């Protein structure tokens, strides 16, 4: 089973797709608001994404960042549906030149084709009186953006939220930068968060604030222990505990160790 769930909230709807459905980070949501889809979904879920985009008359796709679960069908959308795929300026080189993908990512999401995306403007009109604004949100990926719809108090967070208390990190995650991004988006007015993995989070602003506090506290302790001469392993065991199955399955590309390392 691959098409897992339909979501709807006001004028927003979404489909959750994924080859493996056991964890929230092995499935992803493609949202639609007005005639725009937010993100393109992973390559191995193309048939579900295609049906969704076609049946809803989607006329453009707005990408949040280059990761394959978010941008993976971009090339196929351009070729088969012949509608524009827009991405943040910084995502365009990743999408046109490709990027390294570990084996576990290929297995979970499939392998995307390269394509040339159009640059997203800072503001996109979705419908009369409904506009989407880009907010930079690097950390998880250098090119990531969130989409704010100020008229509704909605924030599409891509992978900025996922969970208020992350225990695992990818090698490429930069949590100091992510904390800056969290502070930046929290300055804006919004209530509901649309997370690409968690779904609709009604008290979204509060949950983003909680995540920021969790990271500040965690990394405060990491700093103290590091200055006291503790090893990475000692800090990891004391603050996050033992590694989990995901760490071993991903050869520690996605691990608790990286969560600590991210700020040292
Ligand atoms: Zn991502």
Question: What does this molecule look like?
Answer:
It is a single chain. This protein is of the alpha/beta class. The protein has one domain: Ribonuclease Z/Hydroxyacylglutathione hydrolase-like (Metallo-beta-lactamase, Chain A). It contains ten helices and 15 strands. The strands form three sheets. The chain has a seven-stranded mixed sheet, with helices on one face. It has a six-stranded mixed sheet with strand order 8-9-10-11-13-14. It has a two-stranded antiparallel ribbon with strand order 12-15. A hairpin with a 2-residue loop joins strand 3 and strand 4. Helix 6 runs antiparallel to helix 7. The protein is globular and about 60 Å long. The protein binds zinc ion. The site of zinc ion has 6 residues, from loops.
The residue-averaged pLDDT reads 94
Coarse shape? globular
Instruction: Give the assembly state of these chains.
Output: single chain
Report the sheet-strand fraction.
15-25%
CATH architectural grouping: 4-Layer Sandwich
**How do the strands line up in the largest sheet?**
1-2-3-4-5-6-7
Q: Which cofactor or ligand species appear?
A: zinc ion
How many domain regions? Answer: 1
**Rg measurement, Å:** 18 Å
Give the beta-strand count.
15
The CATH homologous superfamily name equals Ribonuclease Z/Hydroxyacylglutathione hydrolase-like
Number of helical stretches of at least 4 residues: 10
**First CA to last CA: what distance?**
41 Å
CATH topology: Metallo-beta-lactamase, Chain A
Order of helices and strands: EEEEHEHHEHHEEEEEEHEEHHHEH
Q: Please identify the structural class as seen in this structure.
A: alpha/beta
Uncertain runs are none
The CATH top-level class label: Alpha Beta
Note the main sheet.
7 strands, mixed
Helix percent band: 25-40%
